Amino acid sequence: MTYTPKYHFSSLPSHDKVTMPALSPTMTEGNIAQWNFKIGDKIEVGDALCDIETDKATLSFEMQEEGYLAAILVEGGSKNIQVGTPIAIVVDDEGSVKAFKDYKGDSSSDTSSSGSSGASSSKKEETKQESTQ
Fold first, then answer.
1. How buried is residue 114: exposed, middle or buried, by Cβ count under 10 Å (0-12/13-18/19+)?
2. Residue 93 near residue 99, CB atoms below 8 Å
3. Each residue of 20-29: b (16+ CB within 10 Å) or e?
4. If DSSP codes are grouped into helix, strand and coil, which group holds residue 123?
5. Shortest CA distance to 21 belongs to which of 70, 74, 93?
6. Which residues of 46-78 are buried (b: 16+ CB within 10 A; e: fewer)?
7. pLDDT one-digit tens code per residue, 55-99
8. How far apart are CA 61 and CA 73, in angstroms?
9. Which end of the chain is more exposed for a tag (fewer CB within 10 A), N or C?
10. Distance from first CA to last CA of the chain, Å, rounded?
11. Are 96 and 70 in contact (CB under 8 A)?
């Protein structure tokens, strides 16, 4: 899984932005056929988070890390989602899920996937609190 650290000042807990993967060398966009987990569900390594339709096939998007599904940013049935677009948020701690209840995504997110191999693509979003002195 490729992580691109992104630092910003936020009240959100540390989380991973799962992006639309490139499931083939020529894939530029895909469709979310269905989500296999609900918000709050525990996800293990190898679990199929969702099914993605390409122009050639429907493939399972397997997770490379464990965590809890905190937000679904692109609903099942959505079409023509560009590779690199954030599709979900995963957190390490079950208690952090509730912080993403109304999360709709960060409009300033970097959605490029130039360093991604395509097996599973997510971006680690680390939060830092501004120190008060």
1. exposed
2. no
3. bbbbeeebee
4. strand
5. 74
6. ebbbbbbebeeeebebebebebbbbbbbbeeee
7. 889 999 999 999 999 999 999 999 999 999 999 999 999 999 999
8. 15
9. C
10. 37
11. yes
Q: Tell me the one-letter amino acid at 19.
A: T
DSSP 13-82: PPEEEEE----STT--EEEEEEESS-TT-EE-TT-EEEEEE-SS-EEEEE-SS-EEEEEESS-TT---EE
Structure tokens that stand for 64 in this block: 């490379």
- For the question of whether the overall pTM of this predicted structure is more than 0.85, the answer is no
**DSSP helix/strand/coil, 99:** helix
How far is Cα 36 from Cα 12, in angstroms, rounded to an integer? 25
